[in-house]
Structures
1.
Amino acid sequence: MSVVHVPETDVLRRQDPELAEILYGERERQATTLQLVAAENFTSPAVLAALGSSLANKYAEGYPGARHHGGCEIVDVAERIAVDRAKALFGADHANVQAHSGSSAVLAAYAALLRPGDTVLALGLPYGGHLTHGSPANFSGRWFDFVPYGVDAETGLIDYEQVRTLARTHRPKAIVCGSIAYPRHIDYAFFREVADEAGAHLIADAAHPIGLVAGGAAPSPVPYADVVCATTHKVLRGPRGGMILCGSELAERVDRAVFPFTQGGAQMHTIAAKAVAFGEAATPAFAAYTHQVVANARVLAAGLAAEGLHVTTGGTDTHLITADPAPLGVDGRAARGLLAAAGIVLDCCALPHAHDRGLRLGTAAVTTQGMREGEMARVSALMARVLRQETAAQRARAEVRELTGAFAPYPG
Ligand SMILES: Cc1ncc(COP(=O)(O)O)c(C=O)c1O
C-alpha cells in the first residue's frame, strides 16, 4: 500500500500547520505503537481517498433516484454500487449503507421493528452487551424494557438455556444477539429457534464479526436474523460507519427507519468509501486476511494464557480476546496503563462475573500490517514481561518500535 494523501496533507500543512501537526502526530502514533484495540483497523489508501474526496461536499437526503436535493445523479451511482456490493458480499436481499455508525444502525433496527416500551432480550452489559443493548445511559435503556441474559460463570460462554427460559417468561418483541467482547462464534440458529418460539424478531448486532463473515472466517447471521446491524470499520476494514442487512419484506421499513426517522442527509464520501471496502472484502486476499486474523488471535490468546493471564472462554474463534491479568498481579486498568507506556494500545473491559475489569484486545490491525503467528507469540511474551514489570517501559517501547518498523501500516 502507498500513501495517497501526501498532496492533501501538504495543503493542510501550508494552511493550518497546527492541525497538520496533529494529523502527522496521530499517523506517527499509529505507525510506531501496537494497535490492539479490537474495534480498530487500518483502512486502505483507496478507502481513505474516497473519504477525503469531493463527495464530502454533497448533500443527499433520501435514496438513489428519490433525493430531496439536486445534483445527486453521480452520488446515486456510488450508493447503488455500495448497496449491490454489500448484498452480494453477504448474500442479503437488502442492504442499507446510510447508517452513520453501528449505534445508528441499531437505533434504526429498533425503530423499524419496535415501539417504545417493548420488551427486548439482549446480552447484559456486564457480560459484553453494547450500550445500545439496554444501557440506562443510552436511548435503548430509556425507551425499551431490556431483559439481560448472561454468560456461564465457569465457561464464559453464552448461557443459551437462560436465553430460552427468559424468552419463554418475558415474551420479548425482539431478541438481540451480538457483543462488544464475546470472543466465540454465536449460535445464530439457536437464537432463531428461540425467537420463533417467542414470536420475537431476531436482531443480530454483528458489528464485530461482520468482517470475518465477509471473508468466510465466521458464520453468517444473515440467513437467521430478521435484521443484521453492523459497523464497516472493524475487521471489515472500511470507513467508520454502519450498515443494515435484511430480507426484502423489511427493506422499506428499515430504509424509512434510517431516513427520515433517525437520520438526515447521507454521507456520500463515507458511502463511496464503504463501496470501496466492500469491493476489497470480496477478494481472495481479504478472505485470506480474515483467516489470518483468527489464526493470529488464537496464537495471541494461547500465548497470554501460557503466561498466566486468565483468557475468557479459554481462547477465541474470532479477532477478539478478553483476559484477566490479575494472576500477574495487576488489574485491568493498571495493566492498560503499563501496556500503554510500553506502546501497546488496547482497551479495558468488563469481565463476566468478576469485580475487576479485564483487558480486551484484537488482531485486525496488526494483521493488516502483515504480522503473523511469530509476531503474535512475541507480542504475548512482551506483554507478560511488561505486566510483570520485568521489562521497563522504555525498553519495551524500543521493542515495539522495532516490530512496527518492520510492519508499517502505510509503507512508502
Ligand atoms: C456490538 C456493537 N454494537 C454497536 C457498536 C457501535 O458502533 P459505533 O461505535 O460505530 O456506534 C459497537 C461498537 O464497537 C459494537 O461492538
2.
Amino acid sequence: MDKYFRGTRIDADRFRDGMALLTGAVNIVATRNGEARSGLTASAVCSFSAEPPRLLACINFSGNSFQQIAESRCMSVNILAQSQEELAKRFANMLGSEDEDRFDYGTWTELITGAPVLTEALAAFDCAVEEMLVAHTHAVIIGEVKDVIVNGGVKPLLYSNRAFTTTKGEYDEFPLDYIIASPWH
Ligand SMILES: Cc1cc2nc3c(=O)[nH]c(=O)nc-3n(C[C@H](O)[C@H](O)[C@H](O)COP(=O)(O)O)c2cc1C
C-alpha cells in the first residue's frame, strides 16, 4: 500500500451513510452580532478540555451563523432536551419560513458574552471564541467557556440514523447536590 494513502474508495454519500450511524446530541449554537441574533442546530459539538474549560463546534462556513460568530467572537452552545425537537427543526431550517426569527421560539437570555442562551436547555455554555480552524467547507470553533447553566433532569434530544430520538428508559430529576458532587462538574 502507498505510504501516503493516495486514492479513496468513498464519495460524500458513502461518508454520510457511515456518519449517519454516529448518534449525537443535538445542540443550538447561537450568537449575537450587534442587534442581530443568529443560530443553527448542530450535532458536531464536543468537549475539548476541562482545565481550562473549552468546547468545540464544527460549523459550515457558508451558513449565516458562521459569519456572525466570526464577527462577534462569541457563541453559546445549548444542549437540547427531547421536548425541544421542534426548536431543533426551526434552527435547522426544517420548519418555518426563511424570513422568520428563529428566536421567537424558546426563552432566551444573555449571560456574559451577549450570545443568546436558551434558559430551558439541558445545559448551556456561554463562550468567547478562542480559535477558529477553517478547512474545506467547515470551521472548527474552539469556545472559551465563560459561564454555564446546568438544568438536567430530562431526557436529551439525540440524532441517529437521520432521525430524532432519545435515550431508553426513564430517569428522575437529578438533585442539585448530585450535580455539585459529581467528579465531572
Ligand atoms: C440534527 C442536525 C445536526 C446538524 N449539525 C450541524 C453541524 O454540526 N454543523 C453545521 O454547520 N450544520 C449542522 N446542521 C445543519 C444546520 O442546522 C442548517 O444548515 C442551518 O439551517 C444552518 O443555519 P445558518 O445558515 O443560519 O447557519 C445540522 C442539522 C441537523 C438537522
